Amino acid sequence: MLDIVYLIIGLALILFGANWLTDGSAAIARRFGISDLIVGLTVVAFGTSAPELVISVMSAINGSAGLAIGNVVGSNLFNILVIIGVTAMIRPIAVDRSVMTNELPLVLLSSLALLAMGNSATLDATSSSVLTRVDGIMLLLFFAIFMRYTFAQARSIRQPQDDPAADAAAQKPQIPMAKASLLVIAGLAGLIAGGDRFVAGASGIAAALGVSDALIGLTIVAMGTSLPELAASIVAAIKGRPGLAIGNVIGSCIFNAFFILGTAAVIRPLPFGSIGNVDLLALCGASLLFWIFARIYRVRTITRPEGILMAALYIAYTAWLIAMTIR
């Protein structure tokens, strides 16, 4: 019972903290005239991925490798299949050519990198697959390259001074810098405290049910920590800002795979354990489907039928996980 209380309290703190951090950070970023796409790829994506960061790092520190890796793999699957799927069902998502040719391939690359690292036992003829500290450093280097490219893009696509959209945004009430800074600090505090309680609750529930940390990470934890991305993308779609919605998901996936897993692995090497090829191949397949839908059908637009298919595939994957656990 106490584990469930920890889980609920932790998730509440995480969600509130992520919301405060995102609002404060986005307000600061937009004062510098950064575009919706760049804000989505960086500030919003990082803010909404903060729950995954806290939980994976805490899990690595506490020795729960399955929870750390399962959280990232499950969150990226949820991001791509459910968040993009549901967002497309609300409003078809138009994908910029630059996103299709530059950012989306990085999502696929991050999934393929995890697949290769998850098969290190086969490739290196060792006893088990482990995400080593060297692997973690490599993932962080990939992330540094992505950030360098993103900020170069930010400088090149700032909104012009005479842009009507920029003028309209400037007329809206803006969060004062002092309040934005307080939101960032309060958000970080909520994330840290919530992450600690959430990991304790999730690990306790896994032990009580007799299932692995990896399964809890792939399902309950992944869904819970992806709620900020889901909320941010749905609101962006309703408000007609597809750049923010798709940038949020792409940025979160890259942040999860490269930065979060890289950081967690540097803290402590992470055995893949029960995170197997089915899970990693499912992530690669989802990433490839994301790119295909954005590129081929109805040029650079993810349609409602495609969104329904993506959500249905996630339901099928989750049903398979549950069936394998019950068996």
TrEMBL record:
Residue ranges occupied by any Sodium/calcium exchanger membrane region domain in the UniProt entry: 4-150, 182-322
Instruction: Name the domain of life.
Output: Bacteria
Biological process (GO) annotations held by this record are: intracellular calcium ion homeostasis
The record's subcellular location field reads:
Membrane
Q: Which UniProt keywords apply?
A: Membrane, Transmembrane, Transmembrane helix
Membrane association type:
Multi-pass membrane protein
Task: Cite the GO molecular-function annotations of the record.
Answer: calcium channel activity; calcium, potassium:sodium antiporter activity
Q: Which Gene3D superfamilies match?
A: NCX, central ion-binding region, NCX, peripheral helical region
What GO CC terms are in its UniProt record? plasma membrane
Q: What's this protein's name?
A: Sodium:calcium antiporter
Q: Which organism is it from?
A: Paramuribaculum intestinale
